[in-house]
Amino acid sequence: MKDFIKKIKTVFNSFASASRKKIDLQNVQIETPRLFIREFCAQDLGRLVEMTSKPKFKYYCFDGSEDKVRAFLQKSLETQKEKNANGKRDNYLLAVVEKESGILIGHVSIERVNLLPGFTHEINFFVDPAYQSKGYGREAAVNIQFFGIEALGMAGYSVTIHPHNVPSLRVATKEGYIVSALTTLKTENGEEPRLVLALDKAEIYKRHANDNPPMILPERQWPKIVGLK
Q: How far apart are the first and last CA of the chain?
């Protein structure tokens, strides 16, 4: 296991020296204090099936079946090759790995939406129930927020939440999201209402200026990205 972890750290050393190197947006690698965030690969299927089939696991696109996991993984792999009109990616569906153990423990993403003017993307994530309540989800989300702002030039993010989903609303507002609109989405149960909340980059910088414990590596300096001026 030690040799395996050493290999993982070697892969991410290139990102640790981010102030001196460019990052290829087709192969995103982010190191946080406790996590590695990387692109998914086909070999992640078994671990994804394991965590998403647990009784306490909940995420909108899974139902405990392997078919749903395969569809999710395929979508994640396809985003690595996509290019929009500007020759760049619109979506980043990434794997979250616990640095100490080298185990895949979840997922974090930036995905394109068109719900609010000026807020073109939203953040989503999930964590294996066995690794929840440790702040891993928030650590992954905070770092992907900064990646989007510093590397991709995003002005902020939006999120959609059902008006009756009090726990999710509580978490979002605690992070600084502000209710900005009401919309409807087509679901398996028909059209349902959704609150649209927004979080701009000024609020993100403000809220994470003095994180304790730190969510971002002290030496983090986002580099110039390949193909981004």
A: 40
